[in-house]
Amino acid sequence: MKSHADVIVVGAGAAGAAISWQLASSGVRVLCIEQGDFPDVSQYPSTTSRWELKKQNEFSPFPNRRRNSYDYPIDDSDSPISIGNFNGVGGATVLFSGHFPRMHPSDFMTKTLDGVGDDWPLTYSDLEPFFTLNDRNVGVSGLSGDPAYPEITGMMPPVPLGKLGEVMMTGFKRAEWHCWPAYSAIITRPVAGRSPCVNLGPCNLGCPQGAKSSADVTYWPKALEAGAKLITKSQVIRLVARRNNVIDSVEVRSLDGQTHVYRAGFFVVTCNGVGTPRLLLNSVSSDSRSGLANSSGLVGKNLMLHPLGYIEGIFEEDLQSSVGPQGCCLASHEFYETRGEHDFKRGYSFQVLRGPGPVETAVTALKRRELHWGKNIHRQFADRFNRTVSMAAILEDLPRVENEVSLDTIRRDRNGMPSVRIKYKLDQNTRRMLSHALSNGRRVMSLAGAKKTYAFGPVRESGWHLMGTARMGSDPGKSVVDRYGKSHDVQNLYVADSSVFVTAGAVNPTSTLQAIALWIGHHLIERIGR
Amino acid sequence: MCSLEDIASHMIPSDSEFGMPNGGGVDLRVLSIDAFKELWLQTSVKVIADYVHANSETNCSGLSSESFLEVIMAAPPPIRQTISQLGEWLLGAYFSDPVVQQSLGIASVPPFPGGTYIAPSNLESLEEVVNRGPNFRKVAQH
């Protein structure tokens, strides 16, 4: 039967975009199928005064709150952390803040170094050329010379720190802790028809300027130009394997309810750490009753989410803290690595964010009983607005087989596909790490001059980093795919997103997952013979 | 009786020192984003109005802000919970209102397409960070 492409890529997010571009650029016939649509830039609320209200509803990063027609229900009631995503071209990068740090060299061998987690079947050095290629394609700003990494060059100037960044830099200096301008997927110079950042603010509601390097504005225009085909508003329900562990087609449901079948020689799944196991587990057949590529039983297991600690400081001075790219300012990797004096293994990073907008400032103060109705409300608000600095602690959670994504056959999406259940718990190591991070976060806020500090965690609405649920490895009994993302079980199936992560590191995963997608794409091209 | 605007005005009175309008003077229709929320709003306003009327000599519009707040702060927990939820919504409507934001000096934030200028920072103090040397773990493959 006629094939529709050499390779079908499922999902047009950060990883799907990168690998589609790479394959198409090498002359491979690529068809990418995406359940959502192209984001409508004209609807981004970032240029309106009501943006904070939209963030609570139709632009929420949490599908259970957003409930747009491309979302599927996620039951995360058995997890202290809610799951976030965005189903559309560009995936979660449409709503991400643009943090773009790489994982560290040690992240790829935690078992050897620290006796926890597992070693990856590849190294930072293996990925380095793909990090560099990805940075060039995406457009990354930052400052070279960071002692937290092997040399990284070729970046645009960092996004401005503003007054709040300078004040926080003083805090880190007093503590004698590492800090460095954030690596940001935000362009600060014009690039290939894209305009640089003009500090509009709420990057995580979509960037109307196009300065944020979401995959819909970086990879997709290039991929389409190179010949990749992209079908949107079409949901892949099932990968269909008919003989000897070879997939020959995907079953797709379009928005009008019609079912279509697309055939190809190779299939690459890039639906994120929740969507990918969902699709594999739903692709049952007589040969694979527990789901496709699941002879190890590890599809959906080892979910890692980066539990988040949140630290806030209130300052006397007006720091104009609500102004600037919302997520990106300073980062500290002082406590990234395992240290003998800690009562936990591995570590965490700090990210200094901008302060909250006026609505969040007011509502937070109300909940803390520091804003009271009546005549003093405006004074109490003024004491906080633009004087609040927020900081996140991103914790490395270790892979645990008990933390998992499974199918929920009771609740189904609009196409009748089972939704998912999340089961996730923090272990003792993470709890100790969290306590350390919150305490140190308050310390650095105080050293920076905060008159009042707050800290709590894990933050419930923070499950944006979805990793580990189709891990890579050399042993087919202990992993789902090999070092090139190829399924151990299915000859022509690849997984090329953050599902393949073996460990999580303590930084945002997008830079690393795109580098991995390019690494996998490179080897797939060699296999196809282009 | 008592309207949503009356309640908002009492909870968020105007303030000449800060140049802020009262809560009833902003567009509260943004709260009615769907039928469920509209119904909830109507019910909440009625619950509060009935309570205030039953516990004061007049209705909300006849009360000063201080008296209104005194009455509702003494309300039993279920009514206070309603007030608390309504209050959060009112803060959302109020502080996202263009007139209020103008009074805060952030009139058209985010200021598209001109943007906001943020001066480049002095990064000299990072020298100390660099001078402390690498703080990533050098591993065998690198």
Descriptive overview:
The complex is a heterodimer of chains A (530) and B (142). Chain A is of the alpha/beta class and 530 residues long. Chain A has helices at 14-25, 51-55, 63-66, 110-114, 124-138, 162-175, 219-225, 272-282, 358-367, 377-382, 428-448, 510-528, and strands spanning 5-10, 30-33, 74-78, 180-181, 229-231, 234-243, 246-254, 259-269, 308-314, 330-332, 348-352, 388-395, 404-412, 418-423, 452-456, 493-495. Chain A contains twelve helices and 16 strands. In chain A, strands 1, 2, 5, 6, 7, 8 and 16 form a seven-stranded mixed beta sheet that branches. The longest helix of chain A has 21 residues, at 428-448. The two termini of chain A are 23 Å apart. Chain B is mostly helical and 142 residues long. Chain B has helices at 4-11, 35-55, 65-73, 77-95, 98-103, 126-131. In chain B, helix 2 (35-55) crosses helix 4. The radius of gyration of chain B is 24 Å and the shape is elongated. The interface between A and B is large, with 70 and 58 residues.
The helix content of chain A is 10-25%
Q: Could you describe the largest sheet of chain A, including whether it forms a barrel?
A: 7 strands, mixed
Radius of gyration of chain B: 24 Å
Q: Which two chains share the most extensive interface?
A: A-B, 70 and 58 residues
Oligomer: heterodimer
Note the main attributes of this structure.
heterodimer; A: 530 residues; alpha/beta; 7-stranded mixed β-sheet; 6-stranded antiparallel β-sheet; 16 strands; 24% helix; B: 142 residues; mainly alpha; 6 helices; 49% helix; elongated
